[in-house]
Amino acid sequence: MEETYLLNVEGVKKKILHGGQGELPKFQDGSKITFHFQTLKDDFERTVIDDSREAGVPMEIIVGKMFKIEIWETLLSSMRTGEVAEFWCDAIHTGMYALVSKGMRRIAEGRDPLEGQKHRCGMGNMFDYHSTGYDDLDELQRTPQPLIFIMELFRVEEPSAYKRDTWAMSKEEKLAAVPVLHSEGNRLVLRKEFRQAAEKYQEAVICLRNLQAKEKPWEEGWLKLESLVTPLVLNYCQCQLELGEYYEVLEHTTELLQKHNDNAKAYFKRAKAHAAVWNEREAREDFLRVAHLDPAMAAAVKKELKLLGERMRKKHVEDRKRYQGLFQQPRG
């Protein structure tokens, strides 16, 4: 079954290779489309550039979320579930393909798709860098050309039918998700499932940071979001302390204190992390800072300083014994 259609889009032709089932799905904003794709050159050999089946994982895009190859949303929205179709697309629609393919390949290789990029738009990055790191993509970037996309549509899920990633949520959805994630994290902490709890807190922080990026730093909207971020970061750090990820705690508490240098709880968690990695001077300084900022925590600080002193004395004794053993002359 190879019927050729002209979609109502300039520079696009469609050929159905295998018919789908049922009616055309509802492609509303927020719907998730799952499909396999193959990208070919429009040459005599029909050279394969990319094939999602080789990675073994189908592709997913969210309708209305400005996927970089905008024409893909148009192509997929012409398909029925189970349909396999071939689309010829003129160069006016394929100029961004090299950049998108680079990101998809990096993900398949287990690498960061944004590795090495500056904080600029995709087109800006194309001008900043002469090479994508892949010879065939560099050729496409130098010489934009028509491409052929063979797509197989698996399913179209309505926004309410799947758990949406935070990046795919609207502002209102992100704000609604934060207290839910916070509550789930607290519940997991009570069950001592610290790793899972940390993931919940982290996801909530990502939601808020995404919203903060659209606000002017230190203005009212930014500060309101920051007030929600701070307790989540502290909860995340407590989980990392429980998991023994002390350097992770040092990183996040230090970052927090650069903005809020009067946060006693952040100093307390950083002090405990310093103590755990034998940074005695830094730990004592942070503990004393906690007692100064919040006298109500003085008893807890006194207890921690006592424990720190005992641990350091024990370590010094062990170190002395170890060094004595190193330099002790063997008997004849």
UniProtKB/TrEMBL annotation:
Keywords: Cytoplasm, Repeat, TPR repeat. The keyword Cytoplasm applies. GO terms for molecular function: peptidyl-prolyl cis-trans isomerase activity. Residues 27-154 form the AIP/AIPL N-terminal FKBP-type PPIase domain. GO terms for cellular component: cytoplasm. Its main location: cytoplasm. It is found in: Cytoplasm. It holds the Pfam family PPIase_AIP. PANTHER family: ARYL HYDROCARBON RECEPTOR INTERACTING PROTEIN RELATED, PPIASE FKBP-TYPE DOMAIN-CONTAINING PROTEIN. This is AIPL1 protein. It comes from Alectura lathami (Australian brush turkey).
